[in-house]
């Protein structure tokens, strides 16, 4: 590989990481965009200083209006009334970025990254799985190939606490390797279709715009 290619790959990797952190960090469906530099996951139709908070509200209202599930539609409307900055479309884009980041951090055993995005209970579960894997001297060689579908399946506002459940349908490759790098489970040529149901929560009155992963299960 040429030296220039190595530098380019490093720059791209750093850029993607910064964009993903922004999705679940300061701009996950809650704060208006800095007009000049919308992070990944924002509505690409709004560009430059002409974008306004009214545009954001209009887009959000359109998403709610077309939501098929009446209970979800009602929940999204309640959250929007409690937090005018909330935009379901932007949240869903950010949730997909978070899904990818959290899975990859878990597979790599990167507990430091996971701390920022998980509740204490979920973090304890993830950390326990990582510790068990390390005790068995095993590593995961997993790849997320595609998120085929991401859908908000429940939306609730309980007092000040908003909870959104997203169902992800994705394709992955899952391989477990021993300490010598030999595959003990799975094959890189096998694609697995999985369904994950993740619940994110946030106080609508909090100044912290972060959504935290508070529950996970298989669909």
Automatic annotation (TrEMBL):
Annotated Tim44-like domain ranges read 72-218
Cytoplasm as a keyword of this entry, yes or no, is: no
Quick one: a GO cellular component term? membrane
Q: Region labeled Disordered — which residues?
A: 28-56
What GO molecular functions are on record for this protein? protein-folding chaperone binding
Name it: Calcium-binding protein
Question: So which residues are the signal peptide here?
Answer: none
Concerning SUPFAM superfamilies, the annotation shows: NTF2-like
Stated family? Belongs to the Tim44 family.
Per the UniProt record, one Pfam family is Tim44
In terms of NCBIfam families, this protein maps to: Tim44_TimA_adap
Q: Biological process (GO) annotations?
A: protein import into mitochondrial matrix
Swiss-Prot/TrEMBL keywords: Membrane, Transit peptide
């Amino acid at each position: 590989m040429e030296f220039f290619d190595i530098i380019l790959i490093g720059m791209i990797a750093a850029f993607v990481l910064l964009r993903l952190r922004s999705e679940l960090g300061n701009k996950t469906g809650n704060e208006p965009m800095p007009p000049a530099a919308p992070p990944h996951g924002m509505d690409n139709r709004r560009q430059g200083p002409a974008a306004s908070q009214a545009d954001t509200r209009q887009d959000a209202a359109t998403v709610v209006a077309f939501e098929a599930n009446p209970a979800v539609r009602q929940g999204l409307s309640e959250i929007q009334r409690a937090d005018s900055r909330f935009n379901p479309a932007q949240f869903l884009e950010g949730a997909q970025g978070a899904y990818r980041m959290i899975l990859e951090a878990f597979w790599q055993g990167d507990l430091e990254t996971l701390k920022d995005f998980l509740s204490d209970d979920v973090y304890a579960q993830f950390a326990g799985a990582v510790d068990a894997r390390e005790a068995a001297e095993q590593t995961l060689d997993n790849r997320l190939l595609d998120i085929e579908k991401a859908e908000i399946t429940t939306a609730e506002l309980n007092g000040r606490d908003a909870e959104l459940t997203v169902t992800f349908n994705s394709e992955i490759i899952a391989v477990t390797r021993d300490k010598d790098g030999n595959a003990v489970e799975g094959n890189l040529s096998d694609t697995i279709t999985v369904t994950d149901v993740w619940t994110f929560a946030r106080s609508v009155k909090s100044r912290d715009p972060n959504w935290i992963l508070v529950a996970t299960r298989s669909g």
